[in-house]
Design brief:
It contains 9 helices and 7 strands. It starts with 5 loop residues before the first helix and ends in a 12-residue tail after the last helix. It has one domain: TIM Barrel, CATH 3.20.20.140. Helix 3 links the parallel strand 2 and strand 3. Strands 1-2-3-4-5-6-7 form a 7-stranded parallel beta sheet. Bound molecules: zinc ion. Zinc ion binds next to loops.
Length: 260
């Protein structure tokens, strides 16, 4: 949401959004210092929740240094050292989105160190998988690393799955996330095809919101697509609400929307 306007908050509120989760990611530019990340974490944990609250939406976030900026391991470790200072902020869900971008050894080392932070603080993990031709290899590397680290797969969501990686992720016991884009990558129609292929357990979808062409209403549009295909109300609510709630409830800071 740091890249979006208040008009987007208004639109998702009107579409019935009950809560939103913002992963720590690239800010549109490479940060020049660890201090840049310190300020970014303040934005995610202090300012952005206040902006969301004006539209009645609870705002949650994930913290990490994203793989795109983690190629320099010394710099990445400097940033990771700051993360524990923010883990007790009330809107922090866990560690993410960590993962691989170009599948380099340095990225993998930093990925594993992030996993150790999550284990130490007993927090769920959100994982980014690389795009295009690197996706399958990257997903396999990630799954192997998680198995080696003995992480409970139920506490991990592996995001940006596609047709050729969803089965791999689900069969290994992890949660799978489908990231929706209006044109490129996963469109709402393609996401519903995947749901129909892989089933409705341990799977969710999210709207990509970044500096490129992306649509905060993509999840709402996917729900419409499910309705058009005559999926039941129960199934639509399961995938768009109850599944995310089940996963996120593993984070001590998450409050079930509507619960008192
Ligand atoms: Zn990502």
């Amino acid at each position: 949401m740091v890249s979006r306007t208040t008009a987007d908050y208004e639109a998702i509120a009107l579409a019935g959004c009950e809560a939103l989760c913002e992963p720590a990611f690239w800010a549109g530019y490479d940060r020049a210092s660890a201090q840049g990340f310190y300020d970014y974490y303040r934005q995610l944990t202090e300012y952005e929740p206040r902006r969301a609250a004006k539209f009645g939406i609870p705002h949650y976030c994930w913290l990490c240094i994203n793989p795109k900026e983690a190629e320099d391991a010394v710099f990445a470790r400097e940033v990771m050292a700051i993360i524990p200072d923010f883990l007790d902020k009330p809107n922090v869900l866990g560690i993410g989105e960590i993962g691989l971008n170009k599948n380099t050894r340095s990225e993998l080392a930093i990925f594993e160190e992030h996993v150790e932070i999550a284990k130490k603080f007993n927090l769920p993990i959100l994982i980014h998988t690389p795009h295009l031709e690197d996706k399958l290899k990257g997903t396999r590397l990630i799954i192997d690393a998680l198995k080696n680290a003995n992480v409970d797969p139920n506490k991990v969501i592996i995001d940006h799955v596609e047709e050729h990686t969803a089965g791999l992720v689900l069969d290994a016991g992890f949660w799978a996330g489908m990231t929706l884009y209006p044109e490129s990558k996963c469109t709402p129609a393609r996401a519903v095809d995947m749901l129909e292929t892989f089933g409705m357990e341990r799977i969710w979808m999210n709207s990509a919101c970044d500096w490129g062409v992306s649509d905060p209403l993509a999840v709402a549009k996917c729900m419409q697509e499910m309705k058009k295909r005559r999926h039941s109300r129960e199934i639509i609510e399961k995938v768009s609400f109850h599944n995310p709630v089940a996963f996120l409830s593993q984070s001590p800071n998450f409050k079930v929307p509507g619960a008192t």
